[in-house]
Write a structure and sequence with these properties.
The protein is mainly β. The chain has a domain at 46-94: Ribbon (Laminin). It contains one helix and 28 strands. It has one helix spanning 9-31; strands at 37-39, 46-48, 52-55, 58-61, 68-70, 79-81, 85-88, 91-94, 101-103, 110-112, 116-119, 124-127, 134-136, 143-145, 149-152, 155-158, 165-167, 176-178, 182-185, 188-191, 198-200, 209-211, 215-217, 222-224, 231-233, 240-242, 246-249, 252-255. Strands 1-2 form a two-stranded antiparallel sheet. The chain has a two-stranded antiparallel ribbon with strand order 3-4.
Length: 256
């Protein structure tokens, strides 16, 4: 005769006990949440609702002035002023928008319309005075001189250029630079005398020319480099150095 297998009564009992323990633990955790708090949306524990800040095992109300909102941060004062108001002595005071001004995107700073700039402690928008031969700059709160002019105090002065020169946009210096092949000397652009075995560098300082590789420069010429034994042209191309393990001794390379 077949006998019916015994039911796993012990396993069922253990499962019921574990379930009850979990329910009890959950209920205990929920009951441990203080006033003005809520269970965290992730992980275990709880957090204070906006407008309150944790203080030990409780949530204390943040002292917030009128026209402010809670930041939800656990550091700092815990609040910020709403758009159109600025913090002043722990209060949120309305921002006065001056004529030709508007409230910036952050809601707490004044911006001026194009052609105006802030002045008098950032409370007024004054018109930008654009002098002759100038125009409003990209930001709209200043000005730049037109081409062929440069700033001088609060005006734009004409740039006088010598022959073989062109005007630059720089607000300092002479306001002009020499064309390629010329170099500035006093208030003129003089032609650069390029010696044999040299080329123009295009620089506005120095001689304006440089010797080809294998030549070294004197004041007015490029001299061929005479390599001693066990030497080679260096990285500059205009001098020489000894092969290793030789070292330079006057005009020769010797072993140490």
């Amino acid at each position: 005769m077949l006998t019916e297998p015994k039911k796993p009564t012990i396993s069922i009992a253990v499962s019921l006990i574990l379930s009850l323990c979990m329910l009890s633990t959950s209920a205990t955790a929920q009951s441990a949440i203080p006033d003005n708090a809520r269970a965290k949306s992730y992980g275990a524990g709880w957090e204070c609702v906006p407008g309150f800040r944790i203080n030990g095992e409780q949530c204390d109300a943040i002292n917030m002035p009128e026209n402010s909102y809670p930041t939800g941060r656990s550091y700092g004062r815990g609040w910020e002023c709403i758009r159109g108001f600025a913090e002043e002595q722990q209060a949120c005071t309305p921002i006065t928008i001056p004529e030709n001004g508007f409230l910036g995107a952050n809601g707490s700073r004044i911006k001026c319309n194009r052609g105006y700039k802030l002045s008098s402690g950032d409370t007024l928008c004054k018109a930008v005075v654009v002098p002759a031969n100038a125009y409003l700059d990209k930001q709209g709160d200043g000005w730049e001189c037109a081409r062929q002019f440069r700033k001088y105090n609060e005006t734009c002065e004409s740039i006088e250029t010598p022959a073989n020169a062109y005007r630059t946009s720089s607000s300092y210096g002479s306001g002009w630079a020499c064309e390629r092949g010329y170099i500035a000397t006093d208030d003129m652009c003089k032609p650069i005398q390029v010696p044999a075995n040299a080329y123009l560098t295009g620089e506005q300082t120095g001689s304006g020319w440089r010797c080809e590789r294998g030549y070294s420069a004197t004041r007015t010429a490029c001299l061929v480099i005479r390599l001693p034994k066990n030497a080679h042209i260096d990285y500059s191309g205009n001098a020489w150095q000894c092969d290793l393990p030789f070292r330079k001794d006057n005009n020769s390379c010797v072993l140490s």
